């Protein structure tokens, strides 16, 4: 068996590593290289400009404005999404009153689960288009509902006070379903005897959630946290389709800045790559920090 | 799960560290195209009066068309006309909705197609292409004799402004084949029913807005999410008031061009429709299609748009709506241009890349498009005006387009245009756009509006990484 080891390893390992190197690593590396040039994107000519793009970026007010919005997304989206996800998953898995052990879901759990998961099935583009109509100031679902109770709704996506939060709400809405299912699955794996034991000890439902469920779900929550943090640093598709960063840059995000700089309103690929490089390091540091901050000992059920 | 996530991140760090030393090795990747210019237009045949560009009769021609509102059939017809003259030339035709994504690698690689219809949302920024030397100079085309209008050069057959809008620093790089008028649109049916007449002066305009509002209709709506649509009437009003120099100053990024007296007078006037609540409530939250649809449903009387409006709204325009375009109202008796003066410009750009294999073929293809036969066919197929003068004669046009023809006729030699959005796309698409949004939703006044536009223009002017153009 031993003598056949290396050909086997090479046969199975080299092609994927090669593909990974060419299609994943080399574009990254090239982005770093391009970010030090003034490449315009439509000829082969590019001049090396050192760190010019980065110094320009540092003084670019539009970039800072976009980063600020991403920072708000980063602070709000993961917290709200995980809280809602945990709440709904808890209701679906242990919110019901039937049975002694108190670990069944509310009535109609299956239907709810389907409803929550529904946005996950839709393409983000469709979500954006649907919500654009929901936020329609005159004929939209939202203002019609507000109008029915006598409130004059705002123009939502046309108002710099609301536009960003409207997109943020859709970002949360489109993500929650997935985490309901993810947390739900993890909750199913928690042994029932633990719940029976604490209920016998007289613990309330809230205490059960805080002291038993959440600690036992910690690994899953941590993963959710990192995924959501990365999503919050992006947000590009929803923003571009719903508000295109407006009004007056109030809902701009750094991903949109990069896209506009390269393709939409500018053709400065060098500068856009510099924005991409900054995004890379931002995402990287946020992920590392999230992992460090949420590290805990692993619990094994045995 | 934990360990794998961490591994991925660790690999990311490694990639970052590797980047620096590896950068030098990668000169042959994304940007490593063919640097020599030897291919440029080298395949020339002999120049004759029949063949002014020296097309090699059997040289293949590759045409890439933007497959949008105009479709691709009109181009296939032009290609058939080209093949009639050069039966040995093999034409490769393709159509895409994503010009930039499809062609960017080929531009870099040095093997772009011969003719590109650079249009649509995925359009390549033309200022960028020009500044990177990626386009062929089309000046030769203008001096060539027209294919089927005897005694005239191609330039003689074009409507005013076509050459100017495709020129950068006096060189003609971009041929736009569709002629667009920008103005204020209204439904003649609505106006006849109510007994209203389109106002010629600003005071009449405000008076009519009052009447319209009293009739329970909002006088105005606009593309709230693309508020730059409203910068067009504001600048047009200023040009008519202060003369063509107003536009030239803006195009040339002159200091305080946006704060000229004419722009101030115009912004003050337009502020009136915001102040008096003449704009359909909710408009800032609508995109262009949503606002145009509200207008078609009779919720608002006026909207600012270009002559593509009729085509864009085809599906939702009620029968008998009879949309019509009109110039912006005159501010007063001292206006430098008459009321009829209107912004007319060419759109739907075509380019020949500098590194195209068959540059003469591309020029000849343009000459075919600009022949009377090609232009008439274009107008029939896509119901839009061609840049060739007189090509709409005898064609059956919709009410909107007929009104465009009439308005352009009336405007005649007084027609005007501006081009800063071609030179510095970011200025209109992002900066002026944002300022218009604030202004027309009433969050800022006219002075702050012009300030914000000026600040945008200044930021472009002072950015050394953006190439500047002078309007000739």
Automatic annotation (TrEMBL), chain A:
Subcellular localization(s) per the UniProt record: Cell membrane
Regions that span the bilayer: 71-93, 114-131, 162-182, 224-243, 269-291
A GO term from the CC aspect: plasma membrane
GO biological process, one term: transmembrane transport
Domain of life: Bacteria
Keyword Iron-sulfur on entry: no
Domain ABC transmembrane type-1: 67-290
Keywords for the protein's UniProt record, in alphabetical order: Cell membrane, Membrane, Transmembrane, Transmembrane helix, Transport
Membrane topology: Multi-pass membrane protein
Record flagged with keyword Transmembrane helix: yes
SUPFAM superfamilies the record matches: MetI-like
Family: Belongs to the binding-protein-dependent transport system permease family.
Name of this protein: Sugar ABC transporter permease
Species of the source: Phytohabitans rumicis
Lineage: Bacteria, Bacillati, Actinomycetota, Actinomycetes, Micromonosporales
């Amino acid at each position: 068996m031993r003598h056949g080891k290396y050909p086997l390893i090479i046969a199975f390992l080299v092609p994927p590593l090669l593909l990974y190197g060419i299609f994943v690593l080399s574009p990254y590396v090239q982005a770093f290289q391009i970010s030090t040039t003034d490449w315009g994107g439509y000829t082969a000519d590019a001049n090396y400009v050192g760190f010019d793009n980065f110094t320009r970026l540092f003084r670019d007010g539009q970039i800072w404005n976009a980063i600020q919005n991403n920072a708000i997304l980063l602070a709000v989206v993961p917290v709200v999404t995980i809280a809602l996800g945990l709440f709904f998953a808890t209701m679906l898995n242990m919110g019901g009153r039937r049975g002694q052990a108190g670990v069944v879901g509310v009535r109609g759990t299956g239907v709810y689960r389907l409803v929550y998961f529904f946005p996950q099935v839709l393409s983000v583009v469709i979500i954006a288009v649907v919500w654009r109509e929901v936020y329609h100031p005159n004929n939209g679902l939202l203002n019609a509902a507000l109008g029915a109770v006598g409130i004059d709704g705002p123009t939502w996506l046309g108002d710099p006070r609301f536009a960003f939060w409207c997109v943020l709400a859709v970002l949360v809405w489109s993500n929650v379903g997935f985490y309901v299912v993810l947390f739900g699955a993890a909750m199913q794996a928690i042994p029932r005897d633990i719940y029976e034991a604490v209920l016998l000890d007289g613990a309330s439902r809230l205490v059960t959630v805080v002291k038993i469920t959440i600690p036992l779900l910690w690994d899953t929550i941590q993963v959710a946290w990192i995924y959501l943090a990365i999503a919050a640093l992006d947000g590009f598709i929803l923003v571009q389709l719903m508000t295109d960063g407006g009004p007056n840059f109030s809902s701009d995000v750094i991903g949109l800045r990069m896209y506009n700089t390269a393709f939409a309103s500018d053709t400065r690929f060098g500068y856009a790559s510099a924005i991409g490089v900054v995004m890379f390091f931002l995402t990287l540091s946020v992920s590392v920090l999230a992992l460090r901050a949420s590290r805990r000992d692993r619990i094994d059920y045995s | 799960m934990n360990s794998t996530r961490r591994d991925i991140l660790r690999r990311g760090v490694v990639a970052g560290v590797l980047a620096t030393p590896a950068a030098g090795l990668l000169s042959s990747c994304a940007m490593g195209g063919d640097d020599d210019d030897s291919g440029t237009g080298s395949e020339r045949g002999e120049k004759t009066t029949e063949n002014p560009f020296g097309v090699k009769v059997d040289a293949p021609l590759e045409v890439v068309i933007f497959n949008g509102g105009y479709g691709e059939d009109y181009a296939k017809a032009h290609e058939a006309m080209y093949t009639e003259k050069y039966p040995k030339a093999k034409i490769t035709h393709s159509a895409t909705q994503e010009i930039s994504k499809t062609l960017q690698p080929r531009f870099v690689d040095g093997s772009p197609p011969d003719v590109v219809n650079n249009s649509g949302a995925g359009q390549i920024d033309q200022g960028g292409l020009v500044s990177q030397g990626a386009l062929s100079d089309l000046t030769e085309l203008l001096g060539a004799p027209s294919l089927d209008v005897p005694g005239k050069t191609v330039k003689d057959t074009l409507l005013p402004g076509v050459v100017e809008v495709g020129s950068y620093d006096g060189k003609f790089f971009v041929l736009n084949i569709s002629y667009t008028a920008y103005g204020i649109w209204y439904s003649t049916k609505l106006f006849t029913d109510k007994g209203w007449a389109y106002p010629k002066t600003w005071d009449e305009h405000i008076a009519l807005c009052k009447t319209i509002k009293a009739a329970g209709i909002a006088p105005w709506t606009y593309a709230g999410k693309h508020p730059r649509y409203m910068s067009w009437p504001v600048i047009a009003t200023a040009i008519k008031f202060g003369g063509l120099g107003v536009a030239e100053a803006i195009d040339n990024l002159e200091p305080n061009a946006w704060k000229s007296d004419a722009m101030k007078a115009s912004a003050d006037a337009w502020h009136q429709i915001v102040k008096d609540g003449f704009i359909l409530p909710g408009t800032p939250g609508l995109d262009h299609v949503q606002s145009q649809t509200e207008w078609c449903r009779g919720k608002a009387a006026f909207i600012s748009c270009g002559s593509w409006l009729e085509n864009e709204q085809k599906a939702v325009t009620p029968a008998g709506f009879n949309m019509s375009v009109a110039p912006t109202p005159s501010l007063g008796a001292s206006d430098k241009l008459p009321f009829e003066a209107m912004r007319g410009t060419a759109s739907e750009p075509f380019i020949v890349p500098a590194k195209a294999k068959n540059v003469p073929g591309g020029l000849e293809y343009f000459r075919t498009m600009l022949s009377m036969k090609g232009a008439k066919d274009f107008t029939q197929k896509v119901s839009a005006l061609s840049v060739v003068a007189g090509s709409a004669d005898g064609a059956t046009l919709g009410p909107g387009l007929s009104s465009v023809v009439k308005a352009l006729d009336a405007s005649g030699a007084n027609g005007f245009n501006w081009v800063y959005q071609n030179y510095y796309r970011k200025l209109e698409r992002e900066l002026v756009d944002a300022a218009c949004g604030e202004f027309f939703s009433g969050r800022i006044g006219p002075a702050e509006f012009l300030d914000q536009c000026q600040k945008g223009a200044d930021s472009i002017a002072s950015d050394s990484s953006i190439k500047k153009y002078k309007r000739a």
